[in-house]
TrEMBL record:
Keyword set, alphabetical order: Manganese, Metal-binding, NAD, Oxidoreductase
Pfam families hit by this protein: Iso_dh (PF00180)
Gene Ontology molecular-function annotations: tartrate dehydrogenase activity
Protein name: D-malate dehydrogenase [decarboxylating]
Catalytic reaction annotation: (2R,3S)-tartrate + NAD(+) = 2-hydroxy-3-oxosuccinate + NADH + H(+); (R)-malate + NAD(+) = pyruvate + CO2 + NADH; (2R,3R)-tartrate + NAD(+) = 2-hydroxy-3-oxosuccinate + NADH + H(+); tartrate + NAD(+) = 2-hydroxy-3-oxosuccinate + NADH + H(+)
Role noted for this protein: Has multiple catalytic activities. Apart from catalyzing the oxidation of (+)-tartrate to oxaloglycolate, also converts meso-tartrate to D-glycerate and catalyzes the oxidative decarboxylation of D-malate to pyruvate.
Boundaries of every Isopropylmalate dehydrogenase-like domain copy: 7-352
Family note: Belongs to the isocitrate and isopropylmalate dehydrogenases family.
Pathway it works in: Carbohydrate acid metabolism; tartrate degradation; 2-hydroxy-3-oxosuccinate from L-tartrate: step 1/1; Carbohydrate acid metabolism; tartrate degradation; D-glycerate from L-tartrate: step 1/1; Carbohydrate acid metabolism; tartrate degradation; 2-hydroxy-3-oxosuccinate from meso-tartrate: step 1/1
Length: 357
C-alpha cells in the first residue's frame, strides 16, 4: 500500500525561532526515519521581520494558498519589538493563523521532566503530568462592546463575553475525548459560576451535558480562584483541565510555569476536524536578548514537533521523541545553559536526535 507522506509547512520566524527550528527538524527527521514515517518539509520565510522589511507586510496576500493545504504548520516564534511593534507582527501572522484556520483548541502539556527543577517544593517527575485545554476563539476575548461618552463623567466601557453552544460544546468534546484516551480518564472544568452568573452557569450546564456522553470519564469542576491555588498546592490532582478563553489563558501559563523553564514548553493551536492545518510552536517567543548566540534551548521546539506528530496520528513517533527529551534532560551536560548545562542549541538538538529510539 502507498505510504502516507505528511507535508509540513515550516516557518521559523524571528530571533531564536531560526535557531531552534533546525533542531526541531533534525529530531523529527531522526524519529520519522526510525519509525518508517515519511515527512516532507516545505520552508517559508514569511511571518518574520526580515520578510516584513523586504515586502512591507508580514505575509504575502496568498498565504492561505501557500500553507492552507499542508497537514500541519511547524512554527518557531515571531516578534522583533526593536524594529516592529508586536501588534503588527503577531496580528499580521500568528493571530491570523489562529483565527482564519479556526484553531479553536489551544493545547499545552504540563509535565515535570527529569532534571528540570520545579519551583514547587518536593515534586519529582511523574508527580505532575496533565494537559491544559483552552478555548481559543470566543468567550471573554470578544469584540462585542464599546466605549461611550469618552472624556465625560458618563464615560463607560463594556466588553461582552460571548459563548456559543457550538463553541463551548466543541472545546468540551475535545477535552473529554482527550481525558477518555488517558489512563486516569479524569477531566476538570474551570468555572466561576458563583460570580459570573450567566455565562459560567451555562458553561457548567454544557459540561454536565457533555459528561453524559462520556460515562467512563470522571469529572469535577473548581472555581478559577481555588483552581489556580490547587495547580500550585496539588498539581498531582489533575489529568485534563479545560477552560474558557480567559481562564484557559491563565492556566496554560501557570501550569507550565509550575514545571520549570519556558525553554522547554510546547503548544498546539489545533483545528481538530482537520478542515485547516494546526500550528505547533514553542510557548516562548523570539528571545531577542539571547538571539544570535546559539544558546537557546531547543526542547520547546522539539517537543512541539512531538505534539504535531501525535496530532497527525503518529503516537509512537511522538512518544519516541518525548522519551528522547526526557533522557536528554536527565543528563546534565546535554542540557542548555538556562537549565544549568553547558550544551549549545545544536549540541542539545543532536543529543535528542541520537536518543530517539
Ligand atoms: P520570550 O519568550 O521571547 O523571552 C522571555 C525570556 O525567556 C527571555 O529572557 C529569553 O531569553 C528567555 N527564553 C525564551 N525562550 C528561551 C529558550 N528557548 N532558551 C533559553 N531562554 C529562553 O518573551 P519576550 O521577551 O516577552 O518576547 C520577545 C518577542 O517574542 C516579542 O516580540 C513577543 O511579542 C514575541 N513572542 C512571540 C510568541 C510567539 O511567537 N508565539 C510568544 C511570546 C512572545
Ligand atoms: Mg498567555
Amino acid at each position: 500500500s502507498a505510504k502516507k507522506q505528511y507535508r509540513i509547512a515550516v516557518i521559523p520566524g524571528d530571533g531564536i525561532g531560526k535557531e531552534v527550528m533546525p533542531e526541531g527538524l533534525r529530531v523529527i527527521e531522526a524519529a520519522a526515519k526510525k519509525h518508517g514515517v515519511a515527512v516532507q518539509f516545505d520552508h517559508f520565510d514569511f511571518a518574520s521581520y526580515d520578510y516584513y522589511e523586504k515586502h512591507g507586510e508580514m505575509m504575502p496576500a496568498d498565504w492561505k494558498d501557500k500553507i492552507g493545504k499542508h497537514d500541519a504548520i511547524y512554527f518557531g516564534a515571531v516578534g522583533w519589538p526593536a524594529k516592529i511593534p508586536d501588534h503588527i507582527s503577531l496580528w499580521g501572522s500568528l493571530i491570523k493563523f489562529r483565527r482564519e484556520f479556526d484553531q479553536y483548541v489551544n493545547l499545552r502539556p504540563v509535565r515535570l521532566m527529569p532534571g528540570v527543577p520545579s519551583p514547587l517544593a518536593n515534586r519529582k517527575p511523574g508527580d505532575i503530568d496533565f494537559w491544559v485545554v483552552r478555548e481559543n476563539t470566543e468567550g471573554e476575548y470578544s469584540s462585542v462592546g464599546g466605549r461611550m461618552f469618552p472624556d465625560t463623567d458618563r464615560e463607560f466601557v463594556t466588553q461582552q463575553t460571548v459563548m456559543t453552544r457550538t463553541g463551548v460544546d466543541r472545546i468540551l468534546k475535545f477535552a473529554f475525548e482527550l481525558a477518555q484516551s488517558r489512563p486516569k480518564k479524569h477531566l476538570t472544568s474551570a468555572t466561576k459560576s458563583n460570580g459570573i452568573s450567566i455565562t459560567m452557569p451555562y458553561w457548567d450546564e454544557r459540561v454536565e451535558a457533555m459528561a453524559r456522553k462520556y460515562p467512563k470519564v470522571k469529572w469535577d469542576k473548581y472555581h478559577i480562584d481555588i483552581l489556580t491555588a490547587n495547580f500550585v498546592l496539588h498539581p498531582d490532582w489533575f489529568d485534563v483541565v479545560v477552560g474558557s478563553n480567559l481562564f484557559g489563558d491563565i492556566l496554560s501559563d501557570l501550569g507550565p510555569a509550575c514545571t520549570g523553564t519556558i525553554g522547554i514548553a510546547p503548544s498546539g493551536n489545533i483545528n481538530p476536524e482537520g478542515d485547516f492545518p494546526s500550528v505547533f510552536e514553542p510557548v516562548h517567543g523570539s528571545a531577542p536578548d539571547i538571539a544570535g548566540q546559539g544558546i537557546a534551548n531547543p526542547i520547546g521546539m522539539i517537543w512541539s514537533g512531538a505534539m504535531m506528530l501525535e496530532h497527525l496520528g503518529e503516537k509512537q513517533v511522538a512518544d519516541a521523541i518525548v522519551g528522547a527529551i526526557e533522557r536528554t534532560l536527565a543528563e546534565r551536560t546535554l542540557r542548555t545553559r538556562d537549565l544549568g548545562g553547558n550544551a549549545d542549541t545544536t549540541a542539545c538538538g543532536k543529543a535528542v536526535a541520537e536518543m530517539v529510539d
